[in-house]
Amino acid sequence: MAASLDDVGGIDPLALELNSPAEVGQKRGAASAGKSSHKRPKPNDDTLWAAWFFFDTYYKTVYKDDDPGAIDTTVFEVQFAMENCYMYAFRDRQDLSLGPGQLNSWISGKQIGESPYMFPFAVKDGYIRCHRLQNKKYRNLKNPQCITGIRKVVDPPVVAEEDARRWYHLTGRETSEIPGEEAEGYVEWRPVPNPSDHTSAGGRPIGKVQQLDSNSDRGRWLSQIGGVLSKHFGPVTAAKTIYEDSMGYLVKVSLPYVDKRTVKITWRNTTNECIIKVTATSIGGSGTYNKDGRIYKCTDPQAEIPRNGTLTREIHLPMLLPPKSALQASFDPVTAGMEILVPKLTASAGDFEIPVTIL
């Protein structure tokens, strides 16, 4: 539903999308994202099929131009990012995802039980594993494993109608939802690192920002950000503060250096809380800055304004919202931020009759 925006201080309100979740989204998994590393039971057929479908659908083989039958091993995907994308797709249905150890073992080619659903890019089929990646994005990973001969798809995949229905039934996601940069950077499912270590047990990179006490304020918000916002020293943009009274919540979010026309707000219910998600495009962090005919280059090693690109922030509220909740959002010109009003669920004025079907 569209958010209702007030005209604050003479500034024209902008039309922000504020979408309620689909019915299936209200039935998503019980576990919170920060607890995904617990030991899981043996995966069932749905779990293994969903894992196979995800990788088979969103990653495709790349063949040589001069030999269409030969896999091009000069292209590759980083397993670390592939795992993040998979866990991002199942972040609200962790009961249907493989555990970290199970996922790593399955991608390595191990068959789980008698299931026919194997990782679709096996070494025996020519998809060689290597450790040749030299990329600043993964500079804190020790020898990140790469899977050659594949690329993530860029266009919505064409899948059988029956498979699309099964995928939606299991995840609540349309097959057209291709994992993006936010999904590649989704690491909160990985084990929390020890500040004295250089990498976590799950291979999570630990830069200066992440070498923090997990009980610190900074440590708490690190698990709630994504996209380019997770790669800067802050929070400056998308910092939040929550206020409350008897009628609802007032959520204030800082949004300096963002394109206001790109701001989008969505919300969804898990089994025990409501999550409000703010998405926007950062426009204040380019490598160079032109002013008065001069060209400035960014030399700050710990720049606190995120680089240009998409950023996200999730805000967790300890309640559930009905599907037609009237949330409101408006820009505050004084603070370069946004205010989101979230009503609390009130007691009903009377009893509601439930139709009884006689079979």
From TrEMBL:
All residue ranges annotated as the Hsps-like putative alpha-crystallin-like domain in the record: 236-344
Segments forming domain DUF8041: 45-190
Signal peptide: none
Top-rank lineage group of the source organism: Eukaryota
Region (Disordered): 22-42
Record-given protein name: Uncharacterized protein
